[in-house]
Amino acid sequence: MQPYDGVDFLNLDELLTDQEKQVREIVRTFVNRRFMPVVAKHYQAGTFPSDLVPEIAELGVFGCNLQGYDCAGMTDVEYGIIMMELERGDSGLRSLASVQTSLCMYPIHTFGSEEQKKKWLPGMARGEKIGCFGLTEPDFGSNPSGMLSTAVRKGKGYVLNGTKRWITNASIHDLAIVWAKLDGEIQGFIVPKDTPGFTARGIHNKLSLRCSVTGEFIMENCEIPEDCILPQAKGLKAALMCLSSARYGIVWGALGAAMASYHEALTYAKERVMFGVPIAQKQLVQAKLVQMLNEITKGQLIAYRLGQLKMAGKIRPHHISLGKMNNVNMALQVSRTARDILGANGVSDEYQCMRHACNLESVNTYEGTYDIHQLIVGEKITGLAAY
What is the CB-side half-sphere exposure of residue 275 using CA atoms within 13 A? Predict the structure, then answer.
């Protein structure tokens, strides 16, 4: 297979700064040299190459678009480019960085006290502390406001009870950002992993996102001190702000999976000979490749425009919903088409398109399903909530 050099039909590189291109090249090189040689093995085993976490941290990936506290202070477009290059390797790799940055470091940076920021963020930026985000529950995914987890005041602290499920990094975390109802209102907390009454365990036998640590945790009379509450993380809006930050990264990340699948299919089609000619010379195959490229290009434009809006402080949740809905669904269709072009070879782990297709089934579901994002956009354009 030819070396990966990106997909850029409309010369969109001209829109990027030299620094953005440099960031892309650094992360792309890491993925090529360190991650791609081991991803198939870990995907088959259902494990994540945790030995690479220090190297990922050295790239400045964790908390890359946050300011201060040993974070890299990159732009939101640079953050998006990083997510794109990581998911070009695997959705599990992007998920690690996305959860750490947008769902764990972001709420501490945005809603935490100065003491909490100093205590946690530098270690998280260095990859010494790994976080997880506890919002989804067994019976409450698309409707997080119905959560059953509770927090009750006890002396100078709080007692947490509840279960969170489908949590990335759950069984390898050092701290959890937990959302529970305090006096009937959703509130965010920082819960260190060794807190008594806090039990985490992995979810195994997944058919998707196998190169990602997924689990659940149970809180049974879990007592935390007063300084574990995130003082400004009050109400569902705070939790949704974290999700918006992560979903923005997914808009870019899905592009990486789509671009990898398209590149693989194009390379294969030019090399695979059938009836005496490369299959890339066949009309049906060319039609598929053009459709894939067409959708990727539209997705690139959406991602870049969202990056501009985010840096200008003008992005809104419905903008991100449109991007997540479009780009993940697009990437899912592109990876499936790539598998089709590769024929029987497409189901072998020698190639990556089937792995991306399986992963994207999960990405299409988590952090807001395709259907829910449709309804968010629908409410925006009609003024009528349909959920």
Answer: 4
Question: Rounded to whole angstroms, how far apart are CA atoms 54 and 56?
Answer: 5
Q: In angstroms, rounded to a whole number, what is the distance separating the alpha carbons of residues 221 and 230?
A: 19
367 carries an active-site annotation: yes
Name the residue range of residue 274's domain.
237-382
CB 240 within 8 A of CB 103: no
Q: What span, in angstroms and rounded, lies between the C-alpha atoms of 84 and 253? A: 4
- Domain match, 114 and 56 both: yes
What pLDDT digit, counting tens, does each position of 280-338 carry?
Answer: 999 999 999 999 999 999 999 999 999 999 999 999 999 999 999 999 999 999 999 99
Q: Examine residue 28 and state whether it is found in any structural domain, yes or no.
A: yes
d(CA 32, CA 20): 18
Do both 225 and 286 map to the same domain? no
167-209 per-position pLDDT tens digit: 999 989 999 999 999 999 999 999 999 999 999 999 999 999 9
Domain boundary among 125, 152, 185: 125
Domain boundary among 202, 219, 234: 234
Can you give the pLDDT at residue 1? Answer: 57
Number of domains within the chain = 3
| Consecutive H or E run containing 221 | strand 214-225
Residues contacting residue 223 through CB under 8 Å, at least 6 positions apart: 154, 157, 158, 159, 160, 195, 196, 197
The answer to whether residues 219 and 197 touch, using CB atoms and an 8 Å cutoff, is: yes
229 and 243 in a single domain? The answer is no
Judge whether 255 and 296 are in contact, CB under 8 Å.
yes
* Catalytic-labelled residue, pool 78, 85, 264, 367: 367
Q: Is there a single domain that holds both residue 301 and residue 183? A: no
Rounded-to-5 percentages of helix, strand, coil across the chain? 55, 15, 25
Residues of the chain with pLDDT below 50 are none
We report the CATH number of the domain holding residue 55 as 1.10.540.10
